[in-house]
Task: structure prediction
Amino acid sequence: MEKRILLLTTGGTIASTQTERGLAPGLGAEDLLETLRDVLPPCSLDTREVCRLDSTNMTCQEWLLLAREIRQAYEAYDGFVITHGTDTMAYTASALSYLIQNSGKPIVLTGAQKPIHMEITDAKSNLRDAVLYALEEQSAGVQILFNGQVIAGTRAKKIKSFSYDAFSSINYPPLAVVQDGRILRYIPGRKEKAGPVFYEKLNPKVFLLKLTPGIRTELLEAVFQAYDCVIVESFGVGGIPDSMAEDLFRLLSRYRPEEKILVMATQVTYEGSNVGVYEVGQRIRERFRLLEARDMTLEAVLTKMMWILGLGLQSFGEIEKLFYQQIGYDTML
Result:
């Protein structure tokens, strides 16, 4: 009996066509499928167009919509493939990793650096490999498949603007590679016995504050008023510069830890944060309860906090425990 795969399309470069104002998503789900029928592995493949967006325009509403589509179709299919623009694919993959946990079925995101209608494109090979991976018995959970690499949804980051090897797995090895139609696994697939757990809420009031040398602090007041969580993308292993420490400490003192969550992260891609190494980090950790991103990607930190805040937890201790709990390979420290 052939396995059933559901292809969900969202637009992106893979589905783009040339317009007078540049590339824009112009192909629907059936259009993509028509170009691929001769290269896809044998299976029963249905399609559904979820949206038709440049991934720059993807928001948490589209993440929730994708999760809802998968939930409604979960029992009817053996796996799911999502085509998506590359620019925010890592955010969507992270968000889906928290919205759909313990999935025993594969949910594979892919896309392309060049549209599928071009003579030279990575679109066909990426989509073919994604379907192949979704059909494999050991595949489970949320992953990105791009340029033959299978990356956990919470570990992916786009690192190149134009090259085919656009994504990297950060602080964790790739789960597998697909070469010449064969899947080589580095890490065994996880088949959770408890079955999938779906979530339907995200709190978008999470702000990412990127520090720059000599940063001014006038905007901090407005940020704290508008957002429930502030992620500080600091330098190195993490710390607060003297130029903003007084204003930040004053604002934090107005709120209980669970009212305004502070997460310390790093601008450095690899190896993670450790706020306690230097005095500029220790001074804030000694005065306030905060969370540390450690080895997590910024995409995972942002979407995990949206998911946690959407749960409506009442204490900082509950939030802290859940933040440090490993979900979909997102943290090892």
Summary: The two ends are 43 Å apart (CA to CA). The first strand starts at residue 4 and ends at 11. The CA atoms of residues 39 and 128 lie 7 Å apart. The chain has a mean pLDDT of 92.
